[in-house]
Design a protein that fits this description.
This protein has 296 residues and is an alpha+beta fold. It is built from five helices and 17 strands. 44% of the residues are buried.
Length: 296
């Protein structure tokens, strides 16, 4: 489906806490999507791995049972909802591609209920309480854009948000907005000393992607505490939508569930890029060293 590049469109972000039961989380997401659509949202993005609590806090092979195929039960459920409400849904899922092969994958579900495409998370972290390399194979589809009924969009996932290369490659595919479904929070022992700076860095790097690429950025995070008191994560919410010059036009709290809705105008993309022509002045003839890990 080819989208118009000229019409305004409204994006919605669903920031929510997650229970242990995946079916409970799916049902909550369905009702939150209905609320967002009732508020005028046309493209609605759920947080990273919304069907479960953030299981990557531990390395446990039994948790592979949470994975599902794409297409599969969740995309079918959300597809019926997208078709009923005539909206686009972005759903981040634990994809079972085959036995022993799993991805962290975002499915873009069209207004007709069909899957317009999938993006598999390219950058996979391995940090304390973020043991994603145990579960996920790095994405192999590259950085993609998807045409929808309302706009051309790009999708990246969580750890991808720290990489300007990912934002650039997604942006030059022609989307008007980059979505970042996310699960990020504080280690309890670090929050007092580093928490404010960590949250500020997270917000700043994504606003910088909006500025450098002249594009809307919509980041949706989960909220709430998950795990044992001394071995858990306090997810910091703070979902936001930034315009093509990095101005935050909608933002959620760090502690409460929320639905954010904001209007995006492709003419704003055009306006910013005309006055700050970073894409025009790129020296693509000089960037081949970026393909090296380090310049020795």
């Amino acid at each position: 489906m080819q989208s118009s590049s000229s019409g305004k469109f409204r994006v919605g972000l669903v920031q929510m806490s997650c229970a242990i039961d995946p079916n409970e989380n799916l049902e909550k997401a369905r009702w939150r999507i209905r609320e967002a659509a009732a508020g005028g949202a046309q493209i609605i993005c759920l947080q990273e791995l919304f069907r479960s609590q953030y299981f990557c806090r531990e390395e446990n092979a039994e948790l592979f049972a949470l994975a599902e195929p794409i297409p599969g039960p969740t995309t079918e459920t959300l597809g019926r909802l997208a078709r009923e409400l005539e909206i686009v849904i972005i759903a981040s899922l634990f994809e079972r591609r085959s036995a022993g092969l799993y991805h962290n994958t975002a499915a873009v579900i069209s207004t007709d209920g069909e899957i317009a495409g999938i993006y598999r998370k390219m950058h996979i972290p391995d940090d304390p309480l973020y043991f994603e390399k145990f579960y996920f194979t790095p994405g192999d589809l590259g950085f993609l854009s998807f045409d929808t009924a309302f706009a051309r969009i790009g999708v990246l996932i969580c750890w991808d948000q720290w990489y300007p290369e990912a934002a650039r490659l997604s942006s030059i595919g022609g989307p008007n907005v980059l979505f970042y479904p996310t699960s990020i929070g504080w280690h309890p022992a670090e929050k007092e000393q580093y928490g404010a700076a960590q949250l500020d860095a997270w917000r700043t790097i994504q606003r910088s992607h909006a500025i450098a690429n002249g594009i809307y950025v919509a980041a949706v995070n989960r909220v709430g505490f998950e795990g044992p008191p001394n071995r858990g994560l306090e997810f910091w919410g703070s979902s936001f939508i930034a315009d093509p010059f990095g101005q935050v036009i909608a933002e959620a709290s760090s502690t409460e569930e929320a639905i954010l809705i904001a209007e995006c105008d492709p003419h704003r993309v055009e306006e910013v890029r005309r006055n700050w022509p970073f894409l025009r002045d790129r020296r693509i003839d000089a960037y081949s060293p970026i393909l090296k890990r380090w310049l020795d």
